[in-house]
Amino acid sequence: MSKPKSTNVEVRLPSRMGFEKVAMSTAASVAKLMGFPEDRVEDLKTAVAEACINAIEHGNRMNEKLSVGVVLSAGDDELEVKVIDDGKGMNKTQAKPDIDKKMHGEEDPRGMGMFLIQALVDEAEWVAGTDGKSSYVRLVIRLDKEAE
Q1: Which CATH topology does 7-147 take?
Q2: What pTM, to 2 d.p., does this model score?
């Protein structure tokens, strides 16, 4: 029996802290079914959690009437995760955080999510919605990461 080229899994989360864990476990389950090694599954879980927290806090501004969509698309050798909110999108001009200053308490320790996400996955793209809402972050993690 041949497997399909792409399998999609969709989850809709309330804009309430704690529900990012549902997206984390769903992404981890799909990645494990695809054969990702445990360390890459952990990277993915952290990136997905961070993206969901950003969507809840910044995109939907903690408005519980809004939800966060998580769409996982499993291909033959990569997993794409889209985290969709009703916000306007990220500010692309945000300066890169000074890790040393944050570590020494000279800067707010928050504000490192985008950079953490980029470090953990193979691709990360922030897309602002054309209608001023329905923005998303697109994460891609590939099975052959060790071979690169």
Answers
A1: Heat Shock Protein 90 (3.30.565)
A2: 0.83
